[in-house]
Specification:
The protein is an alpha+beta fold. It has 3 helices and 5 strands. A hairpin with a 2-residue loop joins strand 4 and strand 5.
């Protein structure tokens, strides 16, 4: 199995809803997003997928997050805007866009160095 990864960044704010229903203060992060895709074999050129194409696809998805409050996006009005839910959202958007022989292995969202969440689809 071959795996390739691309990374992109966006700046956004969020305010998490706590278990008691209260909200933490709104705060911002310079988020980092890594997409890992794989294939059983490399294609004719020896590639799983062109890095530039994969990065453009990921950039297109996260563009809606850049310089906004995540809470203002419809999905996050229904789902707490945690790093975990951001990773799941990006996964669900990217997976159907990939070529049929390329599998999205995981999306990792890092809020700050040392603090990240990963969403991986079914095995």
């Amino acid at each position: 199995m071959f795996t390739v990864s691309v990374e992109t960044h966006f700046w956004a704010s969020h305010r998490l809803t706590l278990p008691d229903g209260s909200e933490e203060p709104e705060h911002s992060h310079n988020f980092s997003v890594t997409a890992d895709v794989g294939a059983e074999k490399a294609g004719d050129m020896g590639l799983v997928m062109d890095f530039r194409r994969l990065k453009a696809m990921l950039d297109n998805i996260v563009a809606e997050f850049d310089n906004v409050a995540l809470d203002s996006i419809d999905y996050f009005e229904q789902n707490n805007p945690t790093a975990e839910n951001v990773a799941k959202y990006i996964y669900q958007k990217l997976q159907p866009e990939l070529p049929k022989d390329v599998k999205l292995e995981a999306i990792r969202v890092t809020e700050e160095p040392g603090c990240s969440a990963k969403f991986a689809g079914p095995k």
